[in-house]
């Protein structure tokens, strides 16, 4: 069966005649909130309509209601106080290139939005985009055949109505607001990666990391730090900084679909070796990537199960199994003192992501390059898919709070 069959069956597919944006939105009964919002903030409709060959993800009324249910308030009055903020949100819902339902496959496709501001501050934290070409979301089909749009901290919105054409491109209606990716430190805390958060703080590296553009960060989880806890007692801040810089690649946002067997230069002027084995598992030196594609303001984070050792760059994937079998965990997680963990950790950030062999997934990895109509072009490379077994998909408390801070929305209409 073609992977899109279910999606087509499940999603109501809409009218195909060209119409302007306002007409297209007004014709959809589930978009009353969005239409009202656009009506209040005078220049946003023009902004949305002023770009050619776009894909607009239009949040439906449930998406706005979801913010309210998670304790947020939504105020169109406040929205008009800061139309600049609303514009940022809308920019993150508008994508370069026309992605039709038929272009969406099980393999995630990372597409670039019109959110390309680097100085966006959300809740006191730098957020938004310091990613060349504009901040991204990934679009893919899940095992049930639903089209998902996955944004900051891996919150996935579902496409409920696909392929509404308008003069400038195509609209898909989605059931959650797309959450603009957060700063590195906010994201680490949200995912309970408190050891890396603490280590980066101790090493004085946080401002450096957050001020870079286009980063790929390999983030050892807390268990990984616990494995090396006994060796961390006498480490100096400088040594720690060197080790952490070995986990950062700058100049390439290495979304999972772009990774291949290769070496990548790290911030400490060394190299890490990426290996994708024949089962599709991805390794960095000997560390295994266990959760991929967590989007942050200035790039992407992949979670790994070992702390990388710059003194041992030739470590290979086979050493991972050996280490796992022989390492006894310390009783404490180093670097976490003074780091206040979140009480509610977003599930999608803590679960293990499995990487499946190319043969198990139909279709090849694809990347949009923004030119042309049906802008999905294919590239060759590893095929990586995340499992989503029983995942919690509701907007987490923190994300909701942040979304509210950003939107300053309070429903009073
Ligand atoms: C819309 O108006 C707001 C407030 O004047 C401004 O910050 C924003 O840049 C404008 N957007 C566009 C696309 O002109
Ligand atoms: C952001 O994108 C707009 C097109 O929408 C472009 O004119 C502008 O130069 C871009 N800005 C940056 C900082 O890339
Ligand atoms: C974005 O990255 C550039 C370096 O490429 C840096 O100079 C700038 O400060 C960054 N912007 C933010 C908001 O961090
Ligand atoms: C966060 O990580 C710590 C240490 O690994 C663990 O003890 C704690 O249960 C985690 N918190 C949540 C909410 O998962
Ligand atoms: C830390 O330094 C002390 C004093 O030099 C030494 O006795 C101890 O073994 C060191 N601990 C580690 C984990 O290297
Ligand atoms: C990547 O390297 C691994 C280990 O050397 C090998 O098994 C795999 O076939 C390589 N993949 C490609 C596409 O060359
Ligand atoms: C982008 O698309 C254009 C037109 O189809 C093509 O010429 C170009 O090679 C593509 N670039 C990439 C990076 O795929
Ligand atoms: C855009 O799509 C139309 C209709 O499918 C096609 O005729 C045209 O060649 C396409 N243009 C590009 C640049 O791909």
TrEMBL record:
UniProt entry keywords in alphabetical sequence: Signal
Gene Ontology BP term (one): macroautophagy
Pfam family, one: Fasciclin
Residues in the signal sequence: 1-18
Domain FAS1: 18-178, 180-308
SMART domains assigned to the protein according to its UniProt record, in alphabetical order: FAS1 (SM00554)
GO cellular component, one term: fungal-type vacuole membrane
UniProt-recorded name of the protein: FAS1 domain-containing protein
Organism: Elasticomyces elasticus
